[in-house]
Each structure stands twice: as structure tokens, then as C-alpha cells.
Amino acid sequence: MSLLVLFTVLSIFALFIIVLLPRFLLFKEIKTKYNLKIDHFSTHTMRKAFGRKVFESAGTDAPMALMRLQTMFNHASPTITKRYLGITDSELESSYDLLDF
Description:
Layout: H1 3-33, H2 43-57, H3 62-73, H4 78-85, H5 89-97
């Protein structure tokens, strides 16, 4: 094994130990402490939960919230963000029902 390959492997291992392992253990601790019934609990789970909460809290501004989330998540279109968050057409349309004329 060449020295460069060995250095690369050790660097990746160090990255895992220093950066990723503490995050993994933190989320595992939170899941255990609060008895969360979530199969895959990670920073990605938190990202999606945040987006969903923003959308649901937006009320009549839900379409605008969807566009802002698209930018925050760096998605190519609101359609991708809608699919990512699991938002149905009826959910989006119900935001228009909240309008009062």
C-alpha cells in the first residue's frame, strides 16, 4: 500500500471519528432519551422536519414558504421541494381556502 493511499484512508477515518461519530452518537442519545419511534434519525431528518413545520405554519403564505424553502434547500424547483417534503396538491390548495375576501 502506497503512502498516499494510507494517508487518504487514515484521513477519512479521522474525519469519521472527529466529525461524524459525535453527531451520530448525539442523535442516538436524543432518540433514546426521548424514546423516539423513528427508524432513521439524523440531521437529514431534522432538515425535513424543519421544512415541513415551516410549510405547515405558513397558512395562507404556504406557496411563498415553499419557494423560500426551495432556495434554502438549494432545490431546482418548488416541485422538487414539494416532493421532498411530501406535500400533496390538496395540502397546497387548502392554503388558498384560508384566504378571506
